[in-house]
Amino acid sequence: MNIVRTGFYTAIATAARLLAGLVAIKLVAWFAGPEGVGKLGQFMSLMSLLAVLAGGGISAAIVKYVAEYRDDPQRLSRLLSAALWYAFCASCLMGGVALLFSRQLALWLLGDAHYAGLIRVLAVAQLGIALLNYILAVINGFMDVRRLAFIQVTGSVVGIVMMVWLSRWLHLYGALLALVVSQVLWLAVGLPAWWRSSYFRRSMLRLHYDREMTLRLATFSVMTISSAVLPPLVNIAVRDHLALQFGWEQVGYWQAVSKVSDAYLLFLTTAINIYYLPKLASTHGRAALLHELRHAYRYILPAVVVLAATVYVLRGWVTRLLFTPDFVSANVLYGPQLVGDVIKIASFMLSYLMLAKAMTRLFVISECVFAASYFALVYVFTAHFGLVGAMYAFAVNYLLYLAFNVLVARRYLAAL
């Protein structure tokens, strides 16, 4: 399946996920205003963090190795049994930790112990979320884009219904609860769809410790966890810093613009995840890799430039549509954020080479360094430029990350 066809199916699935996310933001903006949107961002960061840690951070590893082993049934069976065992143990551990510290997490992130029950629900849900991520990763590894799109579209519809129902009943608390419950309900769609696939085997649901495969997963897990855990942690720290400096209302403006970026970039990042990770993992040789990378830039970079320019031109209308008139102050933040978005996608396409080729040490070090540099830049730029300095920090940090990835890619390709 080529990138154009992959892009078509992922666009449909992404549109459904995007709609679900926008419904959540709109409802929270209605019920709780800018302050509620800021807290929504904190809770979603916690969800992202726990989802990765609870699943052992091996989704990308499953995609990579399924793509490599799908013609080798014995190794594939060993891999998936070990992956399910790994995810089960990790989800039990992280769920237990979240249960134990639910009150402290509620106070730290949301400033209200009333949300401790919500954290407990999220903790218990980790087993279901880990299983869902495992299923989606296996389907992605087989590059079964149609089935993946079906699960995501149907699951998003379920999430929208749940979001509208619970938020009307419980307002902000209900909206946050719906984010958790809808993720688990995706299993009601994902499991039957996976069972009906031609590549499904009952052995794929067997838990078994395999030392060799577990070590491979653990090595890859370090990379995935560093890339998936550090951004939510840094964003939590950034929100806390902005809240101390400017108040939660200003954090809501920053969060609103960041969410708009996440929303339209979701189309591109999903296509990159679904197509390029398994493709780069199964591609060898300098000429073939160069072809794939050039192919990516030819299609994806012009798309992000057009999308970013469109959002900038329509920023006033977008803000009114997605939020409320109270968010008009966020319009001045779009410019540097959208420039940063273009640089971000350009850097991501190269960074996937490190993931696909398991450059573990280099990848982890780079994630730590650039996470720290982003927070440092936010601290310095907001002191000089105010709230918009957080957007300047975002753009400058990804410019540095792009330069780093260009050097890594050139060195790797030259060595082949």
Order of helices and strands: HHHHHHHHHHHHHHH
Structural class assignment: mainly alpha
Question: Termini distance?
Answer: 26 Å
The total tally of domains equals: 2
Reported for the largest beta sheet, the result is: none
Low-confidence stretches: none
Principal-axis shape: globular
Radius of gyration: 21 Å
Annotation field: number of helices: 15
Q: How much beta, percentage-wise?
A: under 5%
Q: Mean pLDDT, nearest integer?
A: 84
How many DSSP E strands? 0
Helix content class: over 70%
InterPro entries: Poly_Biosynth_Transport, Polysacc_synth, WzxE
Protein name: O-antigen translocase
Pfam family, one: Polysacc_synt
Organism: Rhodanobacter glycinis
Give the key terms.
mainly alpha; globular; single chain; 416 residues; 2 domains
